[in-house]
Design a protein that fits this description.
This protein is of the alpha/beta class. Helices cover 54% and strands 9% of the residues. It has an 8-stranded mixed sheet with strand order 3-2-1-4-5-6-7-10, sandwiched between helices. Strands 8-9 form a two-stranded antiparallel ribbon. α1 packs parallel to α6 (129-135), α8 runs antiparallel to α14 and α14 (316-345) crosses α17 (388-411). The N and C termini lie far apart (86 Å).
Length: 466
């Protein structure tokens, strides 16, 4: 009987695409889904790849179909479903058989599963959506390095490639891979939100049509902002609704969905004491977007500004610069968070390699990431904002970001991610801020003490302590 080189459980959108990718790269794969009908349907629709796919109808049959020592990928919904699947699968496996959770798990769950594992276990982040899973995702590995090395040939083969280099890298122990994937998703939230804010300025502030906005995004995708998200934003803006002939954007409800990974990033940033205001603002904006009835009530009560800007208040070049500055600031916040987690969890996360693994396959892939990788190689301890090449870009663009935020506020157009990035930047470039007032307040009501600026003495109090 033919034996597969790897197994996969869960033939939903991502699982099915990943299984086809594995088969397409010349590896025999055994698959199982909890509904047998789905397994049969998947195999029947695999076309020329069907001979490399072994459909199975029970977990026992799946396990018996894989060459030892086995490796089995889980592509099931994050949460209890993963624990239940591991509990059902592990008794059927040998001591060297490897379970790989490739879903969108919370890294703390992955930490727990790694510590509880009765056998080899990996948690890997997979980014790129259905298309990436099918034709080459970005893969962020976590777990024991020897276990990663066992399956690296398959993961490297199926991953996206940047100039021939696989976008598949081991990040560290336990939940390191899923942590990096969560920060990736947080950056994704912020990048998408900033693009949406610029779209809103062009639509409401400058009176541009969706198709004209799409052309601007297409143009920007040929320059410094070249990225997957700018590319698809141009396609979305330029698409007509088949049912009405209107721009598709004009018939889409303005309530953004989310699966929780952005929220996890914000929560972990607070635990680490690492500010990620652009991501925080993006998550908040999605939450607010879902409150459509409340927003309608607010408009009825307070009225809504027209959003129209004075002629010439902003132009397309200024908006491009604003987005460039905001994007750099967002990534700088994300990499600072990764650096803080690396120290806190003892992971030694490879920041330059993280930038490299994001260059292709994933949702946030962009032209800037190669330069970011180089900057992080030069000095991985330095905030990306301060790297010479990015500092120069921000110096050239920050006034246009400021003007964009000012004019948006004047017109009553919310731009929370751009605004929060500007506030972060202004804080980061001012050596003396205003937290001395907060320390004085804390000492007044709680005698928490403060440090003196002139002598450096700590544990000091104001006269109210006498």
């Amino acid at each position: 009987m033919k034996e597969a080189e790897i197994g996969l459980i869960g033939l939903g959108t991502m699982g099915a695409a990943l299984a086809l990718n594995i088969a397409d790269n010349g590896f025999d794969i055994a698959v199982w889904n909890r509904t047998t009908a789905r397994t049969r349907e998947f195999h029947a629709g695999a076309g020329d790849l069907a001979p490399r796919i072994i459909p199975t109808e029970s977990l026992k049959e799946l396990v018996e179909s894989i060459r030892q020592p086995r490796a089995i990928i889980l592509m099931v919904p994050a949460g209890d479903a993963v624990d239940e699947q591991i509990a059902a699968l592990r008794p059927l496996l040998g001591p060297q058989d490897l379970i790989i959770d490739a879903g969108n798990a919370n890294f703390r769950d992955t930490n727990r599963r790694a510590s509880e594992a009765a056998g080899p276990f990996l948690g890997i982040g997979v980014s790129g959506g259905e298309t990436g899973a099918r034709y080459g995702p970005s893969i962020m590995g976590g777990g024991e390095k020897e276990h990663w090395d066992r399956v690296y040939p398959i993961l490297a083969a199926i991953s996206a490639k940047y100039e021939g280099t696989p976008c598949a890298t081991w990040m560290g122990e336990a939940g390191a891979g899923h942590f990096v994937k969560a920060v990736h998703n947080g950056i994704e939230y912020a990048d998408m939100q900033m693009i949406a804010e610029i779209y809103g300025i062009m639509r409401d502030g400058m009176g541009m049509t969706a198709s004209a906005i799409g052309e601007i995004f297409d143009r920007w995708n040929e320059g410094a902002l070249q990225s997957y998200l700018i590319e698809i934003s141009g396609k979305v803006a330029g698409t007509e609704d088949a049912a009405t002939g209107k721009p598709l954007l004009d018939v889409i409800v303005d309530a953004a969905g989310q699966k929780g990974t952005g929220r996890w990033t914000v929560i972990e940033a607070q635990h680490l004491g690492t500010p990620v205001p652009a991501i925080d603002a993006a998550v908040t904006a999605r939450n607010l977007s879902s409150r459509r009835d409340e927003r309608a009530a607010g408009q009825a009560l307070f009225g809504a500004e027209s959003g129209a800007m004075a002629l010439g208040a902003l132009d397309i070049d200024k908006l491009e610069n604003a987005l460039i500055a905001g994007k750099i600031m967002c990534y700088a916040q994300g990499f600072s968070m990764i650096a803080a987690a690396s120290e806190h969890f003892g992971w030694a996360l490879p920041l330059p390699e993280i930038a490299k693994v994001w260059r292709e396959g994933c949702i946030i892939r962009s032209a800037m990431l190669n330069d970011m990788a180089s900057a992080l190689e030069d000095d991985p301890t330095r905030n990306l904002l301060f790297a010479p090449s990015f500092a120069e870009r921000v110096k050239a663009a920050q006034e246009d970001l400021r003007l964009t935020v000012i004019e948006s506020a004047r017109a009553g157009l919310a731009a929370p991610a751009l605004s929060s990035s500007l506030a972060w930047f202004d804080t980061m470039r001012r050596a003396r801020g205003t937290a001395n007032m907060i320390q004085g307040q804390r000492d007044f009501f709680g005698l928490h003490g403060f440090a003196r600026l002139d002598t450096g003495a700590t544990g000091q109090h104001g006269p109210w302590a006498e």
